[in-house]
Amino acid sequence: MNEPLAERLRPQALEDYISQTHLVGSNGSLTRHIKQGIIPSMILWGPPGIGKTTLANIIANEAERPFYTLSAINSGVKDVREVIEKAKKSGGLFTTKNPILFIDEIHRFSKSQQDSLLQAVEKGWVTLIGATTENPSFEVIPALLSRCQVYILNAFNKSDLEALLRRAIEKDSIISQKNVKLQETDALFRLSGGDARKLLNIFELLVNSQSESEIIITNDMVMQNVQNNTVRYDKTGEQHYDIISAFIKSIRGSDPNAAVYWLARMVEGGEDVKFIARRLLILASEDIGNANPTALVIANNTFQAVSTIGNPESRIILSQCATYLACSPKSNASYQAINKAQLLVKETGDLSVPLEIRNAPTKLMKELGYGDNYKYAHNYEDNFAKQEFLPEEIKNTQLYNPGNNSREQNQREFLKKRWKDKYDY
To answer: Fewer CB near the last or first residue (10 Å), C or N of the chain?
Structure first.
């Protein structure tokens, strides 16, 4: 039986790897490590089907390292320890070319499973490469994360996916024997959701189902032959991203009915409840913020609750939180403020802290004027004294503009009374 097209086309060398030029291009952050064979333990983070496993294999090939692989779905602590023992016996203790241990979907490993990796990574018995579709800050324990570099892989763009299809048509031992014309690609890209493995599997199925001497790929032809491909919720594919997007936008748009519908789609599809709760936590600050500060408290409590309770009861807590947030007043003023502030920092660099608000813990610092003329707010009427807190170069720069809702209108009035001559509130 033939290997699937995605396997047959899996690149074996760095020069054949498509996309991720920020990591493996000529000036990529990983390129030099790979060429020198000095490979750090790392976490590869990105959407499904973008080449995380392929990149791990290439790194091992280029660095001429023994390569061991585990899947977090069907591996336990015992399996991890067995692989580590094999790695140690293969020379990992006595050579700089220690084996590479690749763990797919490392976010599915429990804390105890991740703990079992710590000593091997710390001692250099193995170089760990973990692949994950989830934010490693949440899913990888801090002790292990601190021992790894995190590299973000970006989703394929249209030209990347077209290049994959052209490679299949021109270089695959089976597809290249057929007369395939790639006339339209939008339907293929839409059905695959940017997942290269899924794209190639659909493409192979499509080509193999045709008996004509010339196979012309069009959008209509794709849809006629690959029906209902994305009806089922796929928590690792396009639906994962589309439905969470619809969920968040429904809450942002203050529609609790749509919010609970998309929530139900995710619950029925087996989505990770912690993933949903994390997105609610972000939304509570990004889209509601100071319009209703209680939203963040409820979202945080929701995350803690579903982490403790799990399924099936978590659906009730998630529904309560989602409907509360949907019915809450909205403001992105805090979100906009930090965006503006970060942009300003990038534009102006490391400006000096004004002397009067610097810390002065030593005698020398006091002699140099640190803290001189600082006005301690509590010593003044209404606990307020006008003074400059920004660097001289950007003084009077307004970054926060309260939103148009009752709570933030109170903030606006508060700020206007104090800063009416300085900021435009």
So the answer is: N
Tell whether 243 and 357 lie within a shared domain.
Answer: no
Shared-domain flag, residues 368 and 245 = no
Sign of CA pseudo-dihedral 65, 70, 76, 78:
negative
Model confidence over 370-413: pLDDT tens digits?
888 888 889 989 898 888 889 989 998 999 999 999 999 999 99
Say what the pLDDT of residue 198 is: 86
Give the count of domains, the chain.
Answer: 4
The pLDDT assigned to 211 comes to 80
CB 166 within 8 A of CB 203: no
Indicate the pLDDT class of residue 227, thresholds 50, 70 and 90. low
Q: What is the rounded distance in angstroms from the CA atom of residue 356 to the CA atom of residue 370?
A: 6
Q: What is the pLDDT of residue 235?
A: 55
Same domain, 73 and 144: yes
Same domain for 24 and 131? Answer: yes
DSSP 343: H
Of 88, 50, 43, 47, the residue nearest 66 (C-alpha)? 88
How wide is the angle at C-alpha 236 spanned by C-alphas 112 and 164, nearest 5°? Answer: 120
From CA 46, how far away is CA 33, in angstroms rounded? 20
Give me the mean pLDDT over the 211-230 stretch. 78
pLDDT-based confidence at 340, cuts 50/70/90? very high
Determine contact, residues 128/158, Cβ cutoff 8 Å.
no
How is residue 140 written in tokens? 């990888």
Q: Are residues 33 and 131 in the same domain?
A: yes
- Domain-terminating residue out of 152, 179, 197: 152
Token couple for 88: 């140690």
The CATH code of the domain that includes 380 is 1.10.3710.10
Side chain identity at 64, as an amino acid letter?
E
**Which domain CATH number covers 183?**
1.10.8.60
Q: Which of 129, 141, 1 is nearest to 69 (CA)?
A: 129
Note the pLDDT of residue 327.
95
Pairing of strands 149-152, 42-45: parallel
Q: Give the per-residue pLDDT at 285.
A: 96
Contacts of 273 (CB under 8 A, 6+ apart): 267, 306, 310, 311, 314, 315, 318
pLDDT at 229 over 50: no
Residue with tokens 């912690």: 274
Q: Please report which residue ranges of 352-402 form alpha helices under DSSP H.
A: 363-367
